[in-house]
Amino acid sequence: MSVNYSPPANEGDTECGFFCWKGGSWQIFTSTKVYVLVYGLIGLVHFALGSYEVAIITTIEKRFKIPSRTTGLIMSSWDIGSLICLVLLTYLGSKGHKPRWVAVGTFVIAISSAIMSLPHLIYGPGTFDNSTYDTTLNSKCELGAVSDEVCTEGEESRLSSIILFIANTLLGIGTCVYYTLGIAYLDDNARKNKMPLLLAGIMAIRMIGPTLGFMLGSYALSIYIDPTINPGITSDDPRWVGAWWIGFVPIGISSIFLTLFIWPFPRHLPRAYNRKIEAGIKFDDTQTSFKDFKLMMKRLVKNKVLMYNTVSATLYMFGMMGYWTFMPKYLETQFQQSASQASFITGAVGLICTALGVLTSGLVITHFKPSPQSLALWNVIVEAIDVIGHLSYAYLGCPTENLQGHWESEGWSLTESCNSFCSCPPNIKYNPLCAQDGSVLFYSPCHAGCPTGSFNTTLKVYQNCSCLPDIPIVPGPCPLQCATKFNIFIAILCIMSYFSATGRAGNTIIQFRSVSEDDKAVSIGLTEAFLSTFAFIPAPIFYGALLDYGCLVWGTLCGEQGNCWLYDGRSVRYYMNFTASFFILLATLADVGVWKYSYGLEIYEEEGKEPQELQPLDSKPPEKPIEIEK
Predict the structure, then answer these.
(1) For residues 134 and 195, what is the distance between their CA atoms, to the nearest angstrom?
(2) DSSP 296
(3) Which of 127, 336, 448, 575 has the largest count of CB atoms under 10 Å?
(4) Which residue blocks in 181-223 are alpha helix, DSSP H?
(5) In the 8-state DSSP scheme, what is residue 439?
(6) Strand segments (E) across 430-481
Protein backbone atom coordinates (compact mmCIF):
# COMPACT_ATOMS: atom_id res chain seq x y z
CA MET A 1 0.00 0.00 0.00
CA SER A 2 1.40 3.40 -0.97
CA VAL A 3 0.41 6.54 0.90
CA ASN A 4 0.16 9.97 -0.71
CA TYR A 5 -0.10 12.44 2.12
CA SER A 6 -1.32 16.00 2.08
CA PRO A 7 -1.05 17.62 5.54
CA PRO A 8 -4.10 19.27 7.12
CA ALA A 9 -4.31 22.79 8.42
CA ASN A 10 -2.84 21.79 11.79
CA GLU A 11 0.28 20.16 10.39
CA GLY A 12 1.19 16.89 12.02
CA ASP A 13 -2.31 16.06 13.31
CA THR A 14 -2.51 13.01 11.03
CA GLU A 15 1.19 12.23 10.77
CA CYS A 16 2.55 9.16 12.52
CA GLY A 17 6.06 9.14 13.98
CA PHE A 18 8.44 10.58 16.58
CA PHE A 19 9.06 14.31 16.78
CA CYS A 20 10.71 15.31 13.47
CA TRP A 21 10.59 11.77 12.02
CA LYS A 22 7.00 11.77 10.78
CA GLY A 23 4.96 10.89 7.75
CA GLY A 24 6.29 8.85 4.84
CA SER A 25 6.60 5.14 5.56
CA TRP A 26 5.37 5.69 9.13
CA GLN A 27 1.87 6.22 7.74
CA ILE A 28 1.32 2.50 7.13
CA PHE A 29 0.79 2.19 10.92
CA THR A 30 -2.04 4.73 11.01
CA SER A 31 -4.91 2.24 11.12
CA THR A 32 -7.49 1.21 13.67
CA LYS A 33 -6.30 -2.41 13.51
CA VAL A 34 -2.79 -1.49 14.61
CA TYR A 35 -4.20 0.75 17.35
CA VAL A 36 -6.50 -2.04 18.60
CA LEU A 37 -3.49 -4.37 18.89
CA VAL A 38 -1.27 -1.87 20.74
CA TYR A 39 -4.11 -0.61 22.95
CA GLY A 40 -5.15 -4.17 23.78
CA LEU A 41 -1.57 -5.13 24.73
CA ILE A 42 -1.31 -2.15 27.08
CA GLY A 43 -4.53 -3.33 28.75
CA LEU A 44 -3.08 -6.84 28.97
CA VAL A 45 -0.12 -5.45 30.93
CA HIS A 46 -2.49 -3.52 33.24
CA PHE A 47 -4.52 -6.66 33.99
CA ALA A 48 -1.37 -8.75 34.45
CA LEU A 49 0.00 -6.22 36.95
CA GLY A 50 -3.23 -6.22 38.95
CA SER A 51 -3.40 -10.02 39.22
CA TYR A 52 0.33 -10.21 39.99
CA GLU A 53 -0.16 -7.88 42.96
CA VAL A 54 -2.97 -10.08 44.24
CA ALA A 55 -0.70 -13.14 43.94
CA ILE A 56 2.22 -11.64 45.92
CA ILE A 57 0.47 -9.48 48.51
CA THR A 58 0.56 -12.13 51.27
CA THR A 59 4.29 -12.61 50.67
CA ILE A 60 4.82 -8.87 51.07
CA GLU A 61 2.91 -9.07 54.36
CA LYS A 62 5.17 -11.89 55.54
CA ARG A 63 8.42 -10.25 54.46
CA PHE A 64 7.78 -6.78 55.93
CA LYS A 65 5.38 -7.82 58.74
CA ILE A 66 2.62 -5.62 57.34
CA PRO A 67 -0.84 -6.30 58.81
CA SER A 68 -3.69 -7.13 56.44
CA ARG A 69 -5.56 -3.94 57.25
CA THR A 70 -2.57 -2.00 55.87
CA THR A 71 -2.23 -4.11 52.72
CA GLY A 72 -5.95 -3.60 52.11
CA LEU A 73 -5.39 0.14 52.10
CA ILE A 74 -2.38 -0.32 49.80
CA MET A 75 -4.49 -2.25 47.30
CA SER A 76 -7.23 0.39 47.44
CA SER A 77 -4.74 3.17 46.68
CA TRP A 78 -4.83 2.15 43.00
CA ASP A 79 -8.44 3.33 42.81
CA ILE A 80 -7.67 6.33 45.00
CA GLY A 81 -5.11 7.42 42.38
CA SER A 82 -7.65 6.93 39.61
CA LEU A 83 -10.24 8.95 41.49
CA ILE A 84 -7.82 11.86 41.94
CA CYS A 85 -7.33 12.40 38.20
CA LEU A 86 -10.27 10.84 36.40
CA VAL A 87 -12.59 13.72 35.57
CA LEU A 88 -10.12 16.63 35.41
CA LEU A 89 -7.37 14.74 33.58
CA THR A 90 -9.77 13.32 31.01
CA TYR A 91 -11.17 16.82 30.41
CA LEU A 92 -7.69 18.22 29.76
CA GLY A 93 -6.71 15.21 27.64
CA SER A 94 -9.91 15.28 25.60
CA LYS A 95 -8.80 18.63 24.16
CA GLY A 96 -5.30 17.40 23.41
CA HIS A 97 -3.38 14.57 21.77
CA LYS A 98 -5.03 11.45 23.23
CA PRO A 99 -2.39 8.83 22.22
CA ARG A 100 0.34 10.98 23.79
CA TRP A 101 -1.63 11.13 27.04
CA VAL A 102 -2.01 7.33 26.98
CA ALA A 103 1.73 7.02 26.29
CA VAL A 104 2.57 9.20 29.29
CA GLY A 105 0.21 7.13 31.46
CA THR A 106 1.85 3.91 30.27
CA PHE A 107 5.29 5.31 31.12
CA VAL A 108 4.01 6.23 34.60
CA ILE A 109 3.07 2.56 35.03
CA ALA A 110 6.66 1.59 34.20
CA ILE A 111 7.94 4.03 36.84
CA SER A 112 5.41 2.69 39.35
CA SER A 113 6.60 -0.88 38.73
CA ALA A 114 10.15 0.21 39.51
CA ILE A 115 8.98 1.93 42.72
CA MET A 116 7.18 -1.26 43.79
CA SER A 117 10.57 -3.02 43.86
CA LEU A 118 12.21 -0.33 46.03
CA PRO A 119 11.50 -1.97 49.42
CA HIS A 120 13.53 -4.99 48.30
CA LEU A 121 16.36 -2.80 46.98
CA ILE A 122 16.45 -0.77 50.22
CA TYR A 123 16.08 -3.51 52.83
CA GLY A 124 17.16 -6.65 50.96
CA PRO A 125 15.75 -10.14 51.46
CA GLY A 126 15.71 -10.05 55.28
CA THR A 127 16.96 -12.83 57.55
CA PHE A 128 15.55 -15.83 59.38
CA ASP A 129 16.82 -18.55 61.70
CA ASN A 130 16.34 -22.07 60.30
CA SER A 131 18.26 -23.89 63.02
CA THR A 132 15.40 -24.74 65.39
CA TYR A 133 11.93 -24.61 63.94
CA ASP A 134 9.06 -27.02 64.50
CA THR A 135 5.63 -26.03 63.22
CA THR A 136 3.85 -28.61 65.43
CA LEU A 137 5.92 -28.50 68.64
CA ASN A 138 3.97 -25.68 70.28
CA SER A 139 0.57 -27.17 69.52
CA LYS A 140 0.80 -30.19 71.88
CA CYS A 141 -1.25 -30.42 75.04
CA GLU A 142 1.42 -30.28 77.76
CA LEU A 143 3.17 -27.13 76.65
CA GLY A 144 0.33 -24.66 77.03
CA ALA A 145 2.50 -21.83 75.71
CA VAL A 146 4.02 -20.65 72.50
CA SER A 147 7.18 -18.78 71.66
CA ASP A 148 7.39 -15.02 72.09
CA GLU A 149 5.86 -12.87 69.36
CA VAL A 150 7.48 -9.91 67.65
CA CYS A 151 4.92 -7.13 68.07
CA THR A 152 6.62 -4.14 66.48
CA GLU A 153 6.43 -3.33 62.79
CA GLY A 154 9.55 -1.18 62.78
CA GLU A 155 10.98 1.10 60.16
CA GLU A 156 10.95 -1.51 57.38
CA SER A 157 7.21 -2.06 57.71
CA ARG A 158 6.28 1.62 57.89
CA LEU A 159 8.48 2.87 55.06
CA SER A 160 7.72 -0.11 52.83
CA SER A 161 3.99 0.49 53.32
CA ILE A 162 4.39 4.15 52.35
CA ILE A 163 6.42 3.25 49.24
CA LEU A 164 3.89 0.66 48.09
CA PHE A 165 1.01 3.06 48.73
CA ILE A 166 2.66 5.77 46.59
CA ALA A 167 3.43 3.27 43.82
CA ASN A 168 -0.16 2.03 43.67
CA THR A 169 -1.49 5.59 43.67
CA LEU A 170 0.71 6.36 40.65
CA LEU A 171 -0.58 3.19 39.00
CA GLY A 172 -4.12 4.50 39.38
CA ILE A 173 -3.14 7.81 37.80
CA GLY A 174 -1.35 6.06 34.94
CA THR A 175 -4.21 3.70 34.13
CA CYS A 176 -7.05 6.25 34.34
CA VAL A 177 -6.06 7.94 31.05
CA TYR A 178 -5.91 4.54 29.37
CA TYR A 179 -9.49 3.63 30.22
CA THR A 180 -10.87 7.05 29.28
CA LEU A 181 -8.84 8.81 26.59
CA GLY A 182 -7.57 5.61 24.97
CA ILE A 183 -11.00 4.15 24.26
CA ALA A 184 -12.36 7.57 23.28
CA TYR A 185 -9.61 7.89 20.65
CA LEU A 186 -10.61 4.56 19.13
CA ASP A 187 -14.26 5.56 18.98
CA ASP A 188 -13.30 8.89 17.41
CA ASN A 189 -11.47 7.17 14.57
CA ALA A 190 -13.32 3.90 13.96
CA ARG A 191 -16.44 3.41 11.89
CA LYS A 192 -19.31 3.14 14.31
CA ASN A 193 -20.56 -0.10 12.72
CA LYS A 194 -17.18 -1.75 13.38
CA MET A 195 -16.82 -0.50 16.95
CA PRO A 196 -18.50 -3.50 18.67
CA LEU A 197 -16.14 -5.96 16.99
CA LEU A 198 -13.11 -3.79 17.76
CA LEU A 199 -14.16 -3.56 21.41
CA ALA A 200 -14.55 -7.33 21.52
CA GLY A 201 -11.05 -7.77 20.11
CA ILE A 202 -9.55 -5.42 22.72
CA MET A 203 -11.36 -7.17 25.56
CA ALA A 204 -10.23 -10.58 24.29
CA ILE A 205 -6.58 -9.44 24.27
CA ARG A 206 -6.84 -7.90 27.73
CA MET A 207 -8.34 -11.05 29.23
CA ILE A 208 -5.05 -12.88 28.74
CA GLY A 209 -3.52 -10.48 31.28
CA PRO A 210 -4.89 -11.98 34.54
CA THR A 211 -3.72 -15.46 33.55
CA LEU A 212 -0.24 -14.18 32.73
CA GLY A 213 -0.15 -12.22 36.00
CA PHE A 214 -0.99 -15.25 38.14
CA MET A 215 1.48 -17.42 36.22
CA LEU A 216 4.19 -14.79 36.70
CA GLY A 217 3.35 -14.61 40.40
CA SER A 218 3.52 -18.40 40.74
CA TYR A 219 6.93 -18.44 39.05
CA ALA A 220 8.31 -15.53 41.10
CA LEU A 221 7.19 -17.03 44.42
CA SER A 222 8.76 -20.39 43.53
CA ILE A 223 12.16 -18.63 43.64
CA TYR A 224 13.65 -17.70 47.00
CA ILE A 225 13.64 -13.96 47.74
CA ASP A 226 17.44 -13.94 47.35
CA PRO A 227 18.09 -16.12 44.28
CA THR A 228 21.85 -16.19 44.95
CA ILE A 229 21.61 -18.34 48.10
CA ASN A 230 20.18 -21.71 49.06
CA PRO A 231 18.03 -21.20 52.17
CA GLY A 232 17.96 -24.90 53.01
CA ILE A 233 14.16 -25.08 52.90
CA THR A 234 11.57 -25.65 50.18
CA SER A 235 8.72 -23.45 49.03
CA ASP A 236 6.32 -25.61 51.09
CA ASP A 237 8.01 -24.47 54.30
CA PRO A 238 6.06 -21.72 56.13
CA ARG A 239 9.30 -19.71 56.48
CA TRP A 240 9.75 -19.53 52.70
CA VAL A 241 9.60 -16.01 51.26
CA GLY A 242 9.37 -15.91 47.48
CA ALA A 243 11.01 -13.41 45.14
CA TRP A 244 7.95 -11.15 45.05
CA TRP A 245 9.92 -8.31 43.43
CA ILE A 246 11.04 -10.17 40.28
CA GLY A 247 7.77 -9.84 38.37
CA PHE A 248 7.84 -6.05 38.36
CA VAL A 249 10.91 -6.13 36.11
CA PRO A 250 9.26 -7.65 32.97
CA ILE A 251 6.08 -5.66 33.62
CA GLY A 252 8.03 -2.39 33.75
CA ILE A 253 10.05 -3.23 30.63
CA SER A 254 6.87 -4.17 28.75
CA SER A 255 5.29 -0.84 29.72
CA ILE A 256 8.29 1.11 28.38
CA PHE A 257 8.20 -0.94 25.18
CA LEU A 258 4.49 -0.24 24.65
CA THR A 259 5.00 3.45 25.41
CA LEU A 260 7.22 3.63 22.33
CA PHE A 261 4.48 2.01 20.24
CA ILE A 262 1.54 4.16 21.35
CA TRP A 263 3.39 7.51 21.23
CA PRO A 264 3.74 7.75 17.38
CA PHE A 265 -0.02 7.59 16.72
CA PRO A 266 -1.32 10.88 15.27
CA ARG A 267 -3.99 13.10 16.77
CA HIS A 268 -6.41 11.91 14.06
CA LEU A 269 -6.16 8.77 11.94
CA PRO A 270 -6.11 9.81 8.25
CA ARG A 271 -9.09 7.75 7.06
CA ALA A 272 -11.31 8.94 9.89
CA TYR A 273 -10.10 12.50 9.31
CA ASN A 274 -11.12 12.34 5.64
CA ARG A 275 -14.54 10.88 6.44
CA LYS A 276 -15.29 13.69 8.88
CA ILE A 277 -14.12 16.38 6.48
CA GLU A 278 -16.35 14.96 3.75
CA ALA A 279 -19.26 14.86 6.24
CA GLY A 280 -18.71 18.54 7.07
CA ILE A 281 -17.60 17.86 10.63
CA LYS A 282 -15.16 20.42 11.95
CA PHE A 283 -12.59 19.91 14.67
CA ASP A 284 -12.63 21.53 18.06
CA ASP A 285 -9.43 23.48 18.67
CA THR A 286 -10.82 25.56 21.54
CA GLN A 287 -8.75 25.92 24.68
CA THR A 288 -9.77 24.44 27.99
CA SER A 289 -11.43 26.68 30.56
CA PHE A 290 -13.20 26.27 33.87
CA LYS A 291 -16.40 27.71 32.37
CA ASP A 292 -16.31 25.18 29.54
CA PHE A 293 -15.71 22.40 32.05
CA LYS A 294 -18.74 23.44 34.14
CA LEU A 295 -20.97 23.53 31.05
CA MET A 296 -19.76 20.10 30.01
CA MET A 297 -20.42 18.61 33.46
CA LYS A 298 -23.90 20.19 33.48
CA ARG A 299 -24.68 18.53 30.13
CA LEU A 300 -23.47 15.14 31.36
CA VAL A 301 -25.38 15.22 34.64
CA LYS A 302 -28.61 16.04 32.78
CA ASN A 303 -28.06 13.16 30.33
CA LYS A 304 -30.54 10.52 31.55
CA VAL A 305 -29.12 7.63 29.54
CA LEU A 306 -25.61 8.33 30.78
CA MET A 307 -26.61 8.73 34.41
CA TYR A 308 -28.84 5.64 34.52
CA ASN A 309 -26.07 3.68 32.83
CA THR A 310 -23.51 4.98 35.35
CA VAL A 311 -25.71 4.17 38.34
CA SER A 312 -26.37 0.70 36.95
CA ALA A 313 -22.66 0.02 36.39
CA THR A 314 -21.79 1.22 39.90
CA LEU A 315 -24.43 -0.92 41.61
CA TYR A 316 -23.53 -3.95 39.51
CA MET A 317 -19.82 -3.62 40.25
CA PHE A 318 -20.54 -3.21 43.97
CA GLY A 319 -22.56 -6.42 43.89
CA MET A 320 -19.89 -8.37 42.02
CA MET A 321 -16.84 -6.93 43.80
CA GLY A 322 -17.10 -9.35 46.73
CA TYR A 323 -16.67 -12.34 44.46
CA TRP A 324 -13.91 -10.79 42.39
CA THR A 325 -11.95 -9.90 45.52
CA PHE A 326 -12.66 -12.91 47.74
CA MET A 327 -13.48 -15.73 45.32
CA PRO A 328 -10.49 -17.90 46.37
CA LYS A 329 -11.46 -17.54 50.03
CA TYR A 330 -15.11 -18.27 49.16
CA LEU A 331 -14.16 -21.52 47.43
CA GLU A 332 -11.95 -22.46 50.37
CA THR A 333 -14.76 -21.99 52.89
CA GLN A 334 -17.49 -23.60 50.77
CA PHE A 335 -15.78 -26.40 48.84
CA GLN A 336 -12.48 -26.95 50.68
CA GLN A 337 -10.41 -25.83 47.70
CA SER A 338 -6.89 -24.54 48.25
CA ALA A 339 -6.13 -20.93 47.35
CA SER A 340 -3.98 -21.95 44.38
CA GLN A 341 -6.63 -24.36 43.09
CA ALA A 342 -9.34 -21.76 43.54
CA SER A 343 -7.35 -19.11 41.67
CA PHE A 344 -6.58 -21.49 38.81
CA ILE A 345 -10.15 -22.74 38.44
CA THR A 346 -11.84 -19.35 38.57
CA GLY A 347 -9.16 -17.81 36.35
CA ALA A 348 -9.55 -20.50 33.70
CA VAL A 349 -13.35 -20.45 33.80
CA GLY A 350 -13.48 -16.66 33.77
CA LEU A 351 -11.02 -16.39 30.87
CA ILE A 352 -12.68 -18.94 28.59
CA CYS A 353 -16.35 -18.17 29.26
CA THR A 354 -15.93 -14.40 29.38
CA ALA A 355 -13.84 -14.34 26.20
CA LEU A 356 -16.50 -16.37 24.38
CA GLY A 357 -19.21 -13.99 25.60
CA VAL A 358 -17.35 -10.86 24.51
CA LEU A 359 -16.55 -12.23 21.05
CA THR A 360 -20.11 -13.46 20.58
CA SER A 361 -21.59 -10.08 21.43
CA GLY A 362 -19.16 -8.26 19.14
CA LEU A 363 -20.03 -10.47 16.18
CA VAL A 364 -23.79 -10.32 16.81
CA ILE A 365 -23.88 -6.53 17.18
CA THR A 366 -21.68 -6.02 14.11
CA HIS A 367 -23.73 -8.35 11.90
CA PHE A 368 -27.32 -7.81 13.09
CA LYS A 369 -27.08 -4.20 14.36
CA PRO A 370 -29.73 -4.46 17.11
CA SER A 371 -31.43 -1.26 18.20
CA PRO A 372 -30.21 0.60 21.31
CA GLN A 373 -33.34 -0.44 23.19
CA SER A 374 -32.67 -4.07 22.29
CA LEU A 375 -29.13 -3.77 23.64
CA ALA A 376 -30.39 -2.11 26.82
CA LEU A 377 -33.10 -4.76 27.26
CA TRP A 378 -30.49 -7.50 26.86
CA ASN A 379 -28.50 -5.95 29.72
CA VAL A 380 -31.62 -6.12 31.88
CA ILE A 381 -32.02 -9.83 31.04
CA VAL A 382 -28.33 -10.55 31.69
CA GLU A 383 -28.40 -8.89 35.11
CA ALA A 384 -31.59 -10.77 36.00
CA ILE A 385 -29.69 -14.00 35.22
CA ASP A 386 -26.94 -12.84 37.59
CA VAL A 387 -29.48 -12.24 40.35
CA ILE A 388 -30.90 -15.75 39.93
CA GLY A 389 -27.39 -17.24 39.83
CA HIS A 390 -26.32 -15.61 43.09
CA LEU A 391 -29.54 -16.61 44.82
CA SER A 392 -28.84 -20.21 43.80
CA TYR A 393 -25.29 -19.90 45.21
CA ALA A 394 -26.79 -19.17 48.64
CA TYR A 395 -28.07 -22.74 48.78
CA LEU A 396 -25.13 -24.39 47.05
CA GLY A 397 -22.31 -25.41 49.37
CA CYS A 398 -20.75 -28.29 51.24
CA PRO A 399 -22.01 -29.33 54.69
CA THR A 400 -20.49 -27.29 57.51
CA GLU A 401 -17.65 -29.11 59.25
CA ASN A 402 -18.45 -30.35 62.77
CA LEU A 403 -15.86 -28.23 64.57
CA GLN A 404 -15.23 -29.24 68.19
CA GLY A 405 -16.43 -26.56 70.58
CA HIS A 406 -19.57 -24.60 71.43
CA TRP A 407 -21.09 -21.13 71.12
CA GLU A 408 -20.53 -18.56 73.86
CA SER A 409 -21.53 -14.92 74.16
CA GLU A 410 -18.25 -13.78 72.57
CA GLY A 411 -18.28 -16.38 69.78
CA TRP A 412 -17.17 -19.95 69.24
CA SER A 413 -15.23 -21.48 72.16
CA LEU A 414 -12.79 -24.33 71.53
CA THR A 415 -12.33 -25.14 75.21
CA GLU A 416 -14.15 -28.25 76.43
CA SER A 417 -13.82 -30.40 79.54
CA CYS A 418 -11.62 -32.85 77.64
CA ASN A 419 -8.97 -30.23 76.79
CA SER A 420 -9.35 -27.62 79.54
CA PHE A 421 -6.26 -28.88 81.40
CA CYS A 422 -4.16 -28.30 78.26
CA SER A 423 -4.45 -24.50 78.59
CA CYS A 424 -4.25 -24.11 74.81
CA PRO A 425 -2.94 -20.57 74.18
CA PRO A 426 -5.04 -18.17 72.09
CA ASN A 427 -2.27 -17.52 69.55
CA ILE A 428 -1.79 -21.16 68.61
CA LYS A 429 -1.67 -21.68 64.85
CA TYR A 430 -4.41 -23.53 63.01
CA ASN A 431 -3.31 -27.16 62.63
CA PRO A 432 -6.50 -29.12 61.89
CA LEU A 433 -7.09 -32.73 62.86
CA CYS A 434 -10.05 -34.96 61.99
CA ALA A 435 -11.39 -38.02 63.73
CA GLN A 436 -10.74 -41.04 61.55
CA ASP A 437 -14.48 -41.66 61.27
CA GLY A 438 -15.01 -38.04 60.12
CA SER A 439 -17.26 -37.23 63.08
CA VAL A 440 -15.45 -34.16 64.45
CA LEU A 441 -12.85 -31.57 63.43
CA PHE A 442 -10.26 -30.30 65.92
CA TYR A 443 -8.53 -26.93 65.63
CA SER A 444 -5.13 -28.31 66.70
CA PRO A 445 -3.55 -31.29 68.51
CA CYS A 446 -3.71 -29.22 71.71
CA HIS A 447 -7.49 -28.78 71.40
CA ALA A 448 -7.85 -32.52 70.77
CA GLY A 449 -5.90 -33.18 73.97
CA CYS A 450 -3.04 -34.93 72.17
CA PRO A 451 0.11 -35.09 74.34
CA THR A 452 3.64 -34.95 73.00
CA GLY A 453 4.58 -38.34 71.63
CA SER A 454 1.00 -39.20 70.66
CA PHE A 455 1.73 -39.02 66.93
CA ASN A 456 2.37 -42.46 65.39
CA THR A 457 4.82 -41.81 62.55
CA THR A 458 4.18 -45.26 61.06
CA LEU A 459 0.38 -44.97 60.87
CA LYS A 460 0.41 -41.16 60.45
CA VAL A 461 -2.27 -40.74 63.14
CA TYR A 462 -2.58 -39.23 66.63
CA GLN A 463 -3.43 -41.74 69.40
CA ASN A 464 -4.49 -41.53 73.05
CA CYS A 465 -5.88 -37.98 72.71
CA SER A 466 -8.09 -37.05 75.69
CA CYS A 467 -11.03 -35.80 73.58
CA LEU A 468 -11.24 -39.06 71.58
CA PRO A 469 -9.20 -41.65 73.48
CA ASP A 470 -10.53 -44.67 71.55
CA ILE A 471 -10.54 -43.23 68.04
CA PRO A 472 -7.43 -42.39 66.00
CA ILE A 473 -7.20 -38.78 64.82
CA VAL A 474 -5.81 -37.97 61.36
CA PRO A 475 -3.87 -34.77 60.51
CA GLY A 476 -5.67 -32.39 58.16
CA PRO A 477 -9.26 -31.18 57.77
CA CYS A 478 -12.13 -33.61 57.47
CA PRO A 479 -12.75 -34.56 53.82
CA LEU A 480 -16.00 -33.26 52.35
CA GLN A 481 -17.97 -35.26 49.82
CA CYS A 482 -19.47 -32.53 47.67
CA ALA A 483 -17.78 -32.75 44.27
CA THR A 484 -21.18 -32.65 42.54
CA LYS A 485 -22.12 -29.33 44.17
CA PHE A 486 -18.75 -27.88 43.30
CA ASN A 487 -19.16 -28.88 39.65
CA ILE A 488 -22.64 -27.30 39.60
CA PHE A 489 -21.14 -24.12 41.07
CA ILE A 490 -18.48 -23.97 38.34
CA ALA A 491 -21.10 -24.61 35.63
CA ILE A 492 -23.29 -21.76 36.93
CA LEU A 493 -20.21 -19.54 37.18
CA CYS A 494 -19.38 -20.23 33.53
CA ILE A 495 -22.94 -19.49 32.39
CA MET A 496 -23.04 -16.25 34.36
CA SER A 497 -19.61 -15.18 33.07
CA TYR A 498 -20.65 -15.85 29.49
CA PHE A 499 -23.96 -13.96 29.60
CA SER A 500 -22.49 -11.12 31.63
CA ALA A 501 -19.77 -10.68 29.00
CA THR A 502 -22.32 -10.54 26.17
CA GLY A 503 -23.68 -7.29 27.57
CA ARG A 504 -20.37 -5.43 27.82
CA ALA A 505 -19.93 -4.33 24.22
CA GLY A 506 -23.55 -3.14 23.91
CA ASN A 507 -23.34 -1.29 27.21
CA THR A 508 -20.16 0.51 26.08
CA ILE A 509 -21.70 1.45 22.74
CA ILE A 510 -24.76 2.97 24.44
CA GLN A 511 -22.51 4.99 26.74
CA PHE A 512 -20.50 6.36 23.80
CA ARG A 513 -23.52 7.27 21.66
CA SER A 514 -25.46 8.94 24.46
CA VAL A 515 -23.06 11.91 24.53
CA SER A 516 -21.51 14.25 21.97
CA GLU A 517 -18.04 13.48 20.67
CA ASP A 518 -16.47 16.34 22.64
CA ASP A 519 -17.98 15.06 25.90
CA LYS A 520 -17.12 11.41 25.35
CA ALA A 521 -13.80 11.17 27.20
CA VAL A 522 -15.08 13.14 30.20
CA SER A 523 -18.26 11.04 30.32
CA ILE A 524 -16.08 7.92 30.63
CA GLY A 525 -14.06 9.66 33.33
CA LEU A 526 -17.25 10.60 35.20
CA THR A 527 -18.45 6.98 35.13
CA GLU A 528 -15.05 5.70 36.30
CA ALA A 529 -15.09 8.28 39.10
CA PHE A 530 -18.48 6.97 40.26
CA LEU A 531 -17.20 3.40 40.09
CA SER A 532 -14.07 4.18 42.12
CA THR A 533 -15.89 6.23 44.74
CA PHE A 534 -18.93 4.00 45.30
CA ALA A 535 -17.73 0.53 44.22
CA PHE A 536 -14.03 -0.18 43.76
CA ILE A 537 -12.85 1.48 46.99
CA PRO A 538 -15.64 0.71 49.52
CA ALA A 539 -16.88 -2.67 48.22
CA PRO A 540 -13.83 -4.80 49.21
CA ILE A 541 -13.94 -3.28 52.71
CA PHE A 542 -17.69 -3.92 52.94
CA TYR A 543 -17.47 -7.55 51.81
CA GLY A 544 -14.45 -8.12 54.03
CA ALA A 545 -16.60 -7.05 56.99
CA LEU A 546 -19.33 -9.48 55.86
CA LEU A 547 -16.80 -12.30 55.84
CA ASP A 548 -15.69 -11.31 59.34
CA TYR A 549 -19.29 -11.72 60.54
CA GLY A 550 -19.12 -15.32 59.32
CA CYS A 551 -15.93 -16.12 61.23
CA LEU A 552 -16.01 -18.96 63.78
CA VAL A 553 -12.46 -18.90 65.10
CA TRP A 554 -10.19 -15.86 65.20
CA GLY A 555 -6.43 -15.99 65.51
CA THR A 556 -4.68 -13.57 67.84
CA LEU A 557 -1.52 -11.54 67.38
CA CYS A 558 0.14 -9.88 70.35
CA GLY A 559 -3.11 -9.95 72.31
CA GLU A 560 -5.12 -8.43 69.46
CA GLN A 561 -7.51 -10.02 66.99
CA GLY A 562 -5.69 -11.31 63.93
CA ASN A 563 -6.93 -13.15 60.87
CA CYS A 564 -9.84 -15.59 60.74
CA TRP A 565 -8.90 -19.26 60.66
CA LEU A 566 -12.32 -20.89 60.27
CA TYR A 567 -15.61 -19.63 58.82
CA ASP A 568 -19.20 -20.74 59.18
CA GLY A 569 -19.86 -21.80 55.59
CA ARG A 570 -23.62 -21.27 55.71
CA SER A 571 -23.34 -17.75 57.11
CA VAL A 572 -20.74 -16.79 54.51
CA ARG A 573 -22.98 -18.08 51.71
CA TYR A 574 -25.99 -16.13 52.95
CA TYR A 575 -24.12 -12.88 53.63
CA MET A 576 -22.22 -12.84 50.34
CA ASN A 577 -24.94 -14.00 47.96
CA PHE A 578 -27.99 -12.21 49.34
CA THR A 579 -26.01 -8.96 49.44
CA ALA A 580 -24.70 -9.43 45.89
CA SER A 581 -28.20 -10.29 44.63
CA PHE A 582 -29.66 -7.17 46.23
CA PHE A 583 -27.19 -4.75 44.60
CA ILE A 584 -27.38 -6.48 41.20
CA LEU A 585 -31.19 -6.28 41.38
CA LEU A 586 -30.91 -2.52 41.94
CA ALA A 587 -28.57 -2.35 38.94
CA THR A 588 -31.18 -4.19 36.88
CA LEU A 589 -33.81 -1.60 37.79
CA ALA A 590 -31.43 1.20 36.78
CA ASP A 591 -30.90 -0.49 33.42
CA VAL A 592 -34.66 -0.37 32.91
CA GLY A 593 -34.16 3.42 32.93
CA VAL A 594 -31.46 3.06 30.26
CA TRP A 595 -33.88 0.98 28.18
CA LYS A 596 -36.65 3.59 28.60
CA TYR A 597 -34.58 6.63 27.56
CA SER A 598 -32.40 5.04 24.87
CA TYR A 599 -35.21 5.15 22.30
CA GLY A 600 -34.12 6.95 19.15
CA LEU A 601 -30.41 6.92 20.04
CA GLU A 602 -28.26 6.79 16.89
CA ILE A 603 -25.62 4.12 17.43
CA TYR A 604 -24.81 3.06 13.86
CA GLU A 605 -23.93 4.87 10.65
CA GLU A 606 -24.39 4.34 6.97
CA GLU A 607 -21.26 3.27 5.15
CA GLY A 608 -19.11 6.28 4.30
CA LYS A 609 -21.06 8.56 6.63
CA GLU A 610 -20.46 9.86 10.11
CA PRO A 611 -23.17 9.40 12.75
CA GLN A 612 -25.60 12.24 13.11
CA GLU A 613 -24.92 12.90 16.76
CA LEU A 614 -21.53 14.35 15.79
CA GLN A 615 -22.44 18.01 15.48
CA PRO A 616 -20.21 20.45 13.59
CA LEU A 617 -17.98 22.58 15.75
CA ASP A 618 -16.54 26.05 15.28
CA SER A 619 -13.07 25.46 13.87
CA LYS A 620 -12.43 25.41 10.13
CA PRO A 621 -11.53 22.17 8.35
CA PRO A 622 -8.50 22.04 6.10
CA GLU A 623 -9.22 22.94 2.53
CA LYS A 624 -7.96 19.64 1.21
CA PRO A 625 -8.45 16.20 2.73
CA ILE A 626 -5.72 13.60 2.95
CA GLU A 627 -5.46 11.43 -0.16
CA ILE A 628 -4.88 7.75 0.44
CA GLU A 629 -4.33 5.35 -2.43
CA LYS A 630 -4.57 1.64 -2.03
Answers:
(1) 60
(2) H
(3) 448
(4) 183-189, 195-206, 208-221
(5) S
(6) 433-435, 441-442, 455-456, 461-462, 473-475
